Amino acid sequence: MEGTLKEYSFADLIQMFGYQRRTGILTLKRSEEFVTLVFHNGSIVGVEAFPHRIETMLGRVLIKQGKITERGLERALNIQRKTNEKLGRILVDIGLISKEDLSSSLSLQATKILFSLFKWRDGEFKFKSSETVEYDKEFFVPIEVDNILMQGMQMLDEWPRITSLIRSKKIVFEPLPVKPEFEVVDELHEGPSDKKLSRVEFETLKLIDGKRTVEEIIDLNYVNEFITLRSIVSLIEKGLVREKIVKEVVEERVEKKALKIVAIAGIILSLLIIFSSYKKPLRFLWLGNPIISAEEKESKKVIKRGEEEFINSILKSTINYGSKEN
């Protein structure tokens, strides 16, 4: 089965394959992007995307979450280059993360890709049925289509509201200095007048520090992208957080850049002071012709004259020797 997303939306496709309990591989392509979903008896048991591969995102997210270090990731990548094993399995095998950590991270990255597909309005798809499919049974928790469909449709309904308050994933939110009293409960309670916070909202609030971008908060949170965005919107409406003024963000970045420039200038100045103690000019600091003193010029002339005299003496000896032979 194949066609375009104008004929069948992504929601239509996964609903169909889920209801029919199909097994096979669904490939979706749009411009330079493509996504592959693996189905087993109607459940999604594998997700891969290009150019944003899950394995690539996995390492970055685990570092941001503080579960691994840059050094640990590099160690795992070196092993991967030699063995071609999956990065997640290597991280578990060498004891850097637990199986639960890997399963949770894979699920979050997979659902992030799935939610993005609900917003695809054009593109092509192809589904290839098969009796069996290979998938990571040890670490990948099957995703039920009904759950994704329900949250995906909610996301589409709430997307205008979300984007009206969160203009970009690159913006920064900060907690308000005065926080009203809220009761933390397990179930989600929405509405600016509601004096209750869901557990998800509470955990999301702890990640908002006036420095992290929305994208970084999504990566660090333990729930998927849509629920994180919805939680931030709820926190805005309840008067707990606000978008950080662009001027303040720019000023912070300019200040950091200025400090770097001052540090570099200090290093250069120190080098100049050190090398200025040498008698010879610092030729390596010049991009054009090096500065040569009068003494060095005269010295070079003497050396050149000596070389010419030496060559001429050899030539003269050779000529004289040839004459004697004759």
Could you describe the 3D structure shown?
This protein has 326 residues and is α+β, with helices and mostly antiparallel strands. The protein has helices at residues 10-19, 54-64, 70-83, 87-93, 99-117, 145-165, 199-207, 214-220, 225-237, 246-275, 294-325; strands spanning 2-4, 24-30, 33-40, 43-50, 124-129, 173-175, 183-185, 196-198, 241-243. The strands form 3 sheets. Strands 1-5-2-3-4 form a 5-stranded antiparallel β-sheet, covered by helices on one side. It has a two-stranded antiparallel sheet with strand order 6-9. The longest helix is centred in the C-terminal third of the chain and has 32 residues, at 294-325. The termini are far apart.
> Count of DSSP helices?
11
On the 0-100 scale, what is the average pLDDT? Answer: 80
Strand order of the largest sheet: 1-5-2-3-4
Dominant shape = extended
Low-pLDDT segments, ≥5 res: 283-289, 321-326
Largest sheet geometry: 5 strands, antiparallel
Q: Based on DSSP secondary structure assignment, what is the total number of beta strands?
A: 9
- List the secondary-structure elements in sequence, H or E: EHEEEHHHHEHEEEHHHEHH
Measured distance between first and last alpha carbons: 97 Å
- The secondary-structure class comes to alpha+beta
Strand content: 5-15%
